[in-house]
Amino acid sequence: RDLKNLLILDRIDNPAAIAELKAINPKVTVTFYPYDVTVPIAETTKLLKTIFAKLKTVDILINGAGILDDHQIERTIAVNYTGLVNTTTAILDFWDKRKGGPGGIICNIGSVTGFNAIYQVPVYSGTKAAVVNFTSSLAKLAPITGVTAYTVNPGITRTTLVHKFNSWLDVEPQVAEKLLAHPTQAS
């Protein structure tokens, strides 16, 4: 499609990545906004008001924030699940057809662990199962809200996320090495 705007909302400003995205298609306006998915819904709504005021319309939301560190139980749940739910809830204020919204598309990044847990990281696996179930519920609400929802559930992907992380209660000190021994895909 003829993409007009791409907005990156992230905690980390990465000008090199933004420049790379701009170089891929110079006709697309790429904009960065600092954002932490763990903020309360009210803060997310405030940022979305700014974005919608500037662009007038947003067609798709990709919820892709995620961490893999079962030592940080609350943070893992906050980033991988609560943040996704809060961001989705906030954008529904703008998209929900019951409120006169135009509808939209939500793509939530899950994981194969949402269907087949990696037992050494049950907190991470549990958050991804929650993402799959939450998104499945959203998808069934599409006739009511006008918002289409689906998950993308990649397998083990060679990113910094999987090179070094902590297993729950240190049940497996070599979990990263064992995980990377399986077939992986490039990021």
TrEMBL record:
The record's EC number reads: 1.1.1.1
Alphabetically, which GO biological process terms does the record hold?
alcohol metabolic process
User: Which catalysed reactions does the entry list for this protein?
Assistant: a secondary alcohol + NAD(+) = a ketone + NADH + H(+); a primary alcohol + NAD(+) = an aldehyde + NADH + H(+)
User: What's the top EC group for this one?
Assistant: oxidoreductase
State a single Gene Ontology molecular function: alcohol dehydrogenase (NAD+) activity
What GO CC terms are in its UniProt record? cytosol
What Pfam families is this protein classified in? Answer: adh_short
Q: Which UniProt keywords apply?
A: NAD, Oxidoreductase
Keyword tRNA-binding among UniProt keywords: no
Keyword set includes Membrane: no
Family per similarity comment:
Belongs to the short-chain dehydrogenases/reductases (SDR) family.
The record's subunit annotation is:
Homodimer.
Quote the protein name from its UniProt record. Alcohol dehydrogenase
| Organism per entry | Drosophila kikkawai (Fruit fly)
Gene giving rise to this polypeptide: Adh
